Sequence to fold (323 residues):
Amino acid sequence: MKKLLYIFSLALLLAGCNSVKKNQRLLAQGNYEKAIELAVKKLQKNTSSKKKDGHITVLEKAFQKNVDKATRRISFLEKQGNASGAKEIYYTYQNLAYIQDKIRPLLPIYSNTLKRDAEFTLKDYSSKILDAKKGYIAYLYDEAGLYMQYQTRKDYRTAYNIYCELEDVQPNYKDVSLKKENARFYGTDFVLIDLKNSTNQIIPTSLEQELLSINTYGLDKFWTQYHTQQDSAIDYMYGVTLNFKEITIAPEKLNEIQQRRSKRIKDGWEYVYDSNGNVAKDSLGNDIKKDKYLTISARVMMITQSKSAAVGAEVVYTNMKNK
Fold:
């Protein structure tokens, strides 16, 4: 038993050493966020254990190095003065605040190796985040507007995606909702479907409606819409003609199935009698009753009426711009 406990303790010690070595490698490789994540995960279990000292040391160093790295990057982007850097600045500040919030519940963390509390300089990034957010939103708004000015379907679609990103960051911003709808409209390929009957037969109205039902074919996609009725306000990009060559309608079929069904149902109640033939009483002196059941039966005739049609057609796709 003692041998098993020794082996188990040794395995735990080795596992702890391995995790510290892994974290030290992450730190040496410059993967500071991963090192912080692993250290915090280990320390959340127990901050007072001596085995955690290695993670405390790594966490202290990784935190400071990550702050220095992020600060240098933000400084570079601000000096560069490129509006497209607003997104990276915003999310870098967000990430710095997120890391602080992960470490803050663990503080103070005493290190037996360092003989002191680990040092973390925590800052309030809220003003920086708000300022960066304003710059990021302004950049997205202007960028989407620029793509809208190009007036091509591809650019309208790009503008739509940018407006969606903007709404994720700041819902209900200015007139973004309306602009997004316009980008979706102008970025959509509208296709007009027309039915042409070359069969010399009269197509039943119900069949014609079914053939022209777009839901039947499942054709509509996000950037493609099919219309069976022309809208004068829409500039159609493509046309589809369904030229029916042959329609064969089979005679009606009747299929009859007869079944017998039974069911037990409640049909009133009756008194319960004791061995002397008297109505039985409950503990309160009330007459005891019970439900009466009977079984009913019925013959059910199910009639299925069906009619089928075979359709042969030619599908002609036309570019409405160059015919």
Remarks:
- Confidence is low (pLDDT under 50) at residues 2-16.
- The chain is about 45% helix and 25% strand.
- The longest strand covers residues 253-271.
